[in-house]
């Protein structure tokens, strides 16, 4: 209700009070509608997924496996805030069998807002890492927030927990629901062994479940996706999808966009994009993937990294040293150029280079890569380092840094046009 309209009738002080009461009334009505809608969707199984990493990949695989036998919806893209759960709830129809939603935690109490009316019956917790370190200041607080998902499950529900992560496994005692574990741990209900994922081979492993061993083949890239696959299989098995259907669906399911997704170029250079999020703790897995890969040359392009305690300089130098041992060329791109200059001084072989400007970095990378090379881009979506891929075959005209847009450059008209309207 406009304050100016009420002020003409009742006066400004009364207007503010009446407007506040009106807005509170509207909020209560919205919450009541959401609660009512959720109760009316009693035949739909609501599935919540949280964790420091792998949420979107797990959600996409889960939806793919369930869609082989059921109808349902999943949250859009990486839409994982509390209002995303509202959006998914509104898209859920009365004939849907499932609704899958990922839940992010960017501070204490942030998951609870969406759980209040989403009320999942199945909850998946993947990892507890240093995401949003400035907000949580410690893994204990991150763990407490992630645990809210399994605490909210009903007695007849199922908590699907990563047995390989001690902080996740501790949540087994915090939920009233049945617990189904996954991982490489010998006591996991869904146990993966004989894992193969050395490039160009796609992820495969042997699954031990209910006393039986089953070979599993996927289209996914790297061991980084293993826990996402196992968690999604756990959801599908919980909902009664036959193992044969699960295996067939996994063989068809491709990586989620910008999450270890494959992008070959016409000149024979192969790119892997992992440029949705770039946390410091994820770098050992990225370096290990390239170390085991089979390619003519292996190149790592790294943007600004996030979510770490301690000295930034020491962290970046640690990444550079680890990469230098296994990777032919590591290219750092982003702010903090003085920090990268120190990396150059330590390295005399030319295996580590750094640029503060993405266009200069792109000219450099595209100048020396050749057919048969494998290039992995690791950055946040805000850095838009994917322009390095397009620059080799297109006339890229937008080199803006910090445009404020999360959408990938290949979906932005400014990539080739050069004009860019800042986000309002």
Walk me through the structure.
The protein has 424 residues and is α/β, with parallel strands linked by helices. Helices cover 39% and strands 18% of the residues. It contains 16 helices and 15 strands. It has helices spanning 3-10, 12-40, 55-66, 82-91, 110-118, 133-136, 139-151, 166-169, 226-238, 243-252, 283-292, 312-326, 337-346, 358-368, 387-391, 414-417, and strands at residues 45-50, 72-74, 98-103, 122-125, 158-162, 178-183, 190-196, 204-209, 212-217, 261-264, 270-274, 298-302, 329-333, 352-355, 374-378. The strands form two sheets. Strands 2-3-1-4-5-6-7-8-9 form a nine-stranded mixed β-sheet, sandwiched between helices. The protein has a six-stranded mixed β-sheet with strand order 10-11-15-12-13-14, with helices on both faces. A hairpin with a 5-residue loop joins strand 10 and strand 11. The mean pLDDT is 86.
Short précis:
With 424 residues, this protein is of the alpha/beta class. It has 16 helices and 15 strands. It is globular, with a radius of gyration of 24 Å.
What topology does this entry show?
Layout: H1 3-10, H2 12-40, E1 45-50, H3 55-66, E2 72-74, H4 82-91, E3 98-103, H5 110-118, E4 122-125, H6 133-136, H7 139-151, E5 158-162, H8 166-169, E6 178-183, E7 190-196, E8 204-209, E9 212-217, H9 226-238, H10 243-252, E10 261-264, E11 270-274, H11 283-292, E12 298-302, H12 312-326, E13 329-333, H13 337-346, E14 352-355, H14 358-368, E15 374-378, H15 387-391, H16 414-417
Parallel strand pairs: 1-3, 1-4, 2-3, 4-5, 5-6, 6-7, 11-15, 12-13, 12-15, 13-14
Antiparallel strand pairs: 7-8, 8-9, 10-11
Helix pairs in contact: 1-2, 3-9, 3-10, 4-5, 5-7, 11-12, 12-13
């Amino acid at each position: 209700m406009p304050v100016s309209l009420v002020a003409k009738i009742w006066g400004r002080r009364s207007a503010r009070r009446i407007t506040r009461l009106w807005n509170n009334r509207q909020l209560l009505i919205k919450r009541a509608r959401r609660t009512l809608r959720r109760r009316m969707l009693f035949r739909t199984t609501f599935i919540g997924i949280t964790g420091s990493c792998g949420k979107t990949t797990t959600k996409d695989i889960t939806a793919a496996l369930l869609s082989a036998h059921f109808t349902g919806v999943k949250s859009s893209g990486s839409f994982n805030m509390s209002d995303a759960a509202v959006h998914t709830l509104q898209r859920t129809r009365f004939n849907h069998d499932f609704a899958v939603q990922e839940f992010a935690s960017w501070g204490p109490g942030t998951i609870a807002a969406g759980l209040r009316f989403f009320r999942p019956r199945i909850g998946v917790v993947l990892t507890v890492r240093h995401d949003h370190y400035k907000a949580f200041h410690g893994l204990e607080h991150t763990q407490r927030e992630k645990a809210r998902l399994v605490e909210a499950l009903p007695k007849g529900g199922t908590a699907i927990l990563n047995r390989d992560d001690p902080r996740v496994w501790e949540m087994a005692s915090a939920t009233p629901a049945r617990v189904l574990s996954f991982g490489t741990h010998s006591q996991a209900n869904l146990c993966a062994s004989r894992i193969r994922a050395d490039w160009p081979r796609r992820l495969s492993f042997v699954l031990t479940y209910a006393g039986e061993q089953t070979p599993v083949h996927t289209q996914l890239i790297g061991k980084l996706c293993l826990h996402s696959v196992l968690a999604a299989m756990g959801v599908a098995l919980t909902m009664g999808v036959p193992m044969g259907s699960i295996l067939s669906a996994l063989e068809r399911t491709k990586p989620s966009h910008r999450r270890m997704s494959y992008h070959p170029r016409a000149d024979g250079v192969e790119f892997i994009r992992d440029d949705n999020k770039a946390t410091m703790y994820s770098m050992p897995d990225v370096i290990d993937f390239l170390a085991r890969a089979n390619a003519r040359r292996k190149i790592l392009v790294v943007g600004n990294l996030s979510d770490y305690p301690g000295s930034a300089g020491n962290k970046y130098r640690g990444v550079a040293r680890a990469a230098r041992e296994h990777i032919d060329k590591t290219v750092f791109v982003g702010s903090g150029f003085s920090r990268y200059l120190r990396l150059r001084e330590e390295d005399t072989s030319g295996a580590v280079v750094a640029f503060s400007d993405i266009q200069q970095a792109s000219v450099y990378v595209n100048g020396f890569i050749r057919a048969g090379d494998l290039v992995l881009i690791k950055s946040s979506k805000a850095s838009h380092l994917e322009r390095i891929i397009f620059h080799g075959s297109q006339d890229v005209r937008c080199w803006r840094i910090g445009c404020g847009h999360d959408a990938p450059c290949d979906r932005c008209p400014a990539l080739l046009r050069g004009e860019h309207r800042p986000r309002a």
